[in-house]
Amino acid sequence: MKTVLLIGKMNELMKNISDYLRKFFNVQLCTDNNQNVIGMIKVVEPDLAIVNMVGLYDMDTNVFDTLYQKFSEIPVITIGTENEHRDFARYYLDKQFTKLIRPIDNSDVLSAVCERLELNADEMVSNVREKEDDRKKVLVVDDNATTLRSIKEMLGEKYNISLANSGMKAMTSIGKTRPDVILLDYEMPVCDGRQTLEMIRADEDLQSIPVIFLTGVNDREHIEAVIKLKPAGYLLKPAVPDKLIEAIEAATIK
């Protein structure tokens, strides 16, 4: 994990930025005292420094010279108003320094940090959201767009829902994010539910994922064919929320 050093007065702006960036980086805080900055950089060896320029005229402005002369390898982002930046214009002629103008959102700060560190901000946000979302992950596979939307609306508040409109797209989705359970349409063109289940079970890393079939055909022969595949469950369409939730919870009991 990359380390970011926040330098400046510990005001509300600094607190908000610190709290947000801690989701993505190892964040260290440092007052604007020049000697403290030198000591912290030597100890934590940051990948990037952010200088909060609020209260600029009260801070130790030697910090800028120190960063420029002694630690030129560390990219620096400064956050302040145009006026706060004005007396330091000479530093921004060098690629080491990047300025962000207040008011600014935390997402803008993250984008700037990622750009300087050559990281993908969207990917980092997605990874954090996935870690923070402790809901069960449900992959819904159906070639009917209306069915996909309907099930997502039914289950979206309770579960982390992903959608796929074909068996092949389902396999791609599973490869990226392993679901806790799969709701799989039995009747699909090209690669139907049975074939999709066979592909899942052929992969040792995926075969333990419970699969619940959804089928719109309610005759004995059809139902028996579904049961022979030994899914974790099966439901007749149109599915209703209570039945879906009951089946998902039963399939994911550990």
Explain what you see.
With 254 residues, the protein is of the alpha/beta class. It folds into two domains: 3-128, Rossmann fold (3-Layer(aba) Sandwich), CATH 3.40.50; 134-251, Response regulator (Rossmann fold, 3-Layer(aba) Sandwich), CATH 3.40.50. The protein has helices spanning 12-21, 34-44, 62-70, 82-86, 106-117, 121-132, 145-155, 167-176, 193-202, 220-228, 241-251; strands at residues 3-7, 26-30, 48-52, 76-80, 97-101, 137-141, 160-164, 181-185, 211-215, 233-236. Strand 9 (211-215), helix 10 and strand 10 (233-236) form a beta-alpha-beta unit. Helix 8 packs parallel to helix 9. The longest helix has 12 residues, at 106-117.
CATH class of the largest domain: Alpha Beta
Work out the helix count: 11
Shape label: elongated
Main sheet?
A: 5 strands, parallel
Q: CATH topology of the largest domain, what is it called?
A: Rossmann fold
Strand order of the largest sheet: 2-1-3-4-5
Computed Rg: 27 Å
Strand content: 15-25%
CATH superfamily of the largest domain: Response regulator
Mean pLDDT: 90
Q: How helical, in percent, are the residues?
A: 40-55%
Give the SSE order as H and E letters. EHEHEHEHEHHEHEHEHEHEH
Number of strands: 10
Based on the structure, what is the oligomeric state of the protein chains? single chain
Number of domains: 2
Low-confidence stretches: none
Distance between the termini: 32 Å
The assigned structural class equals: alpha/beta
Per CATH, the architecture of the largest domain is: 3-Layer(aba) Sandwich
